[in-house]
Amino acid sequence: MWRKPFIPLLIGAAVAMASLSGCSLLPVEEEELAPPLVEPVKEVLNVVDAKRATIVKQITGVATFASDKTHYLYYKTAAGKLISMNVKLGDKVKAGDIVAMTDTGELETKIRIQEIAIEKAKIALIQEITSKGDGDPSVQLKKLDMESAQIQLNSLQTQLENSRLIAAADGIVTYVDPIQPGEEVAANKQMVTLSDPTQMQLVYTASSQNDIAAVEINMDVTVKIKDKTYPGKVVQTPMTVPPSDNKTIQDKNNKSIVIAVHPLPDGVTIGSQADITVVTEQRDNVVVIPRAGLRSYMGRDYVQVLDGDSRKEIDVEKGIVAATEVEIRKGIGEGQKIILAN
Description:
The chain is an alpha+beta fold. It has four helices and 20 strands.
């Protein structure tokens, strides 16, 4: 009888041992690591001091020597298909030379036939006057016939003249249109340019008229040719150029300035190039900042200044805006720290 309570104790001990051994078989969970502390990125500001300096607004570029005496040859009316271009770049041309011709069809034959018709009309008129007298109505009819024939001949001769592009003066060919024989010739399109090589000036052509809007007559120009510097003067601007009925020429003139260089440097020929600088505005001892420091929004001009550790916006009035700098007339003073835009 003493064995009965011992059996439940054994069973309990076995269950406990099984529980302990079962727990030891499960994986041990690792502790979750705390995220690393991330230090905030410190903003790096590009800061410069506003300074007093001379600011210059100028135009720089490459100009080309061209003849001061230039003739632009073009057809005033549509003249049909091109037959031949009789000149090439660099050719010397005399006044009266035919530089290009368009198709005339049987125009020359028609002119000859009309000339014969006039000769016959003259003979008939003489015969009529001889036989009937100058006051006879039939004589008047013959005179009208001859006048009509002459008008027709004049018209045909004008057509022939219009088919020929003729040099108006002596010169060197400095431009030839790339049109090919067989292509239609357009009215008022520049075909050939003749230039007088004894009279030359510099021509600078900008990308647009706005780029040279500030250039005025008689402004000084610095001309540089092969490391040598020469003085020049603006003698023509888009505002002073004579109007042209040729659109190509007018469009070029609208964005070009002409510069006189006296005396002409040795060795310069048509097509020679030179570096030019035209100062259009200059102010001395003014507050100047880099252009990257000036900000604009909705018509408002302002700068950001460093005030201690913080930014501060200040409205400003700008003056001359040059290639890399801008004049500040009001709003900030010399020495203030300007934050540049990225």
